[in-house]
Design brief:
single chain, alpha+beta, 8-stranded mixed sheet, 3-stranded antiparallel sheet, 8 helices
Length: 327
């Protein structure tokens, strides 16, 4: 029936995601009805503890309603797609490379906690610790819609584990998110505009990837965009995935141009250093993570670094919605 298994799988994923969303709404409606019955019983029997429980239930359901409302707003072009997430270490040397590896772990944990599939497509190890860069593919309905708010420079302040004098260091790493392009989106690339390089992989994958020139890097000369993949076992498979990444990057570039032209969002990608950060993670002298676009903050350092990012994403979506409503 299907001549494109990947497209078929994506359609099934979208259908499953829509079904789950409808089920959440139905479950919430049932909970509301049950709670109203609880209130009626409590008033009949004069049970104050039951009334208190009902009030607590309504408070929780209000939060669930807000979350479902925000989820329904993920309707911009590309929101439903899978996502590529790039991480690059910035100013700060070994510190920044270690920080980049912490971010990679954070997004892998976020994907796992939210039932998304994550796969490292390219990884460049740091010279002493951490990573110089990584590309993570996150698959699932609305992956790009949620993750797009993570694009920008992330700043870390902490006591350096690499400093024998235990001094405070500031490190930077950039995150850039773009949607995976499926077959329903046509992106034309002139092969003459691209340079293809092959090289030996340096990341995980066993002896095969280290002994053969199976990794592929494609450079789109007109834009300077680079797409690379090294995690597949053959050069052919890596080349195919690199082309997918390049198409996705060019698609995101086009989306960004449209948004800027419409005034929907501000350009977020800047120099990978001071003054361009979108979020600050302060571990010392106090513990606080603050998003500089929404002003949302939390002291739950461990939770966030272990993937608890949904509150930041919801605030970003709510903030974007408010800005559109006020324009």
């Amino acid at each position: 029936m299907w001549d494109n298994p990947e497209r078929a799988q994506k359609l099934m994923s979208e259908r499953t995601g829509l079904t789950n969303h409808i089920k959440k709404i139905q479950d919430l409606e049932n909970s509301i009805n049950d709670t109203y019955e609880m209130i009626g019983l409590a008033e009949t029997e004069g049970d104050e503890s039951l009334l208190a429980e009902a009030e607590k239930n309504f408070s929780q359901m209000e939060k669930q309603m807000d979350a479902l409302e925000l989820e329904s707003l993920l309707c911009q072009e590309g929101d439903k797609n899978d996502a590529f997430l790039e991480i690059h270490s910035g100013a700060g040397g070994t510190e920044a490379q270690d920080w980049a590896s912490m971010l990679l772990r954070m997004y892998e944990h976020w994907a796992d906690k939210n039932d998304y599939k994550s796969e490292v497509m390219e990884l460049s190890d740091g010279e002493e610790a951490g990573i110089k860069s990584a590309i993570l593919k996150i698959s699932g309905l609305n992956a790009y819609g949620w993750l797009k708010f993570e694009s920008g420079v992330h700043r870390l302040v902490r006591i350096s584990p690499f400093d024998s004098n235990a001094r405070r260091h500031t490190s930077f790493a950039s995150v850039w998110v773009y949607p995976v392009v499926d077959d329903s989106i046509q992106i034309d690339i002139n092969p003459a505009d691209c340079r293809i390089d092959v090289y030996r992989s340096s990341g995980a994958g066993g002896q095969h990837v280290n002994k053969t020139e199976s990794a592929v890097r494609i450079t789109h000369i007109p834009t300077g965009i680079v797409a690379a993949c090294q995690t597949q076992r053959s050069q052919f498979a890596n080349r195919d995935e690199a082309w997918r990444m390049l198409r996705a990057r060019l698609y995101e570039l086009e989306l960004q141009k449209r948004r800027e032209a419409q005034g929907a969002v501000e350009a977020q990608k800047g120099d990978n250093g001071w003054g361009n950060q979108v979020r600050s993670y302060v571990l010392q002298p106090y513990q606080m993570i603050k998003d500089l676009r929404t002003n949302y903050e939390t002291s739950d350092i461990n939770g966030v670094l272990n993937g608890d990012l949904n509150d930041f994403m919801r605030e970003s979506l709510a903030n974007l919605t408010k800005s559109k409503g006020g324009s």
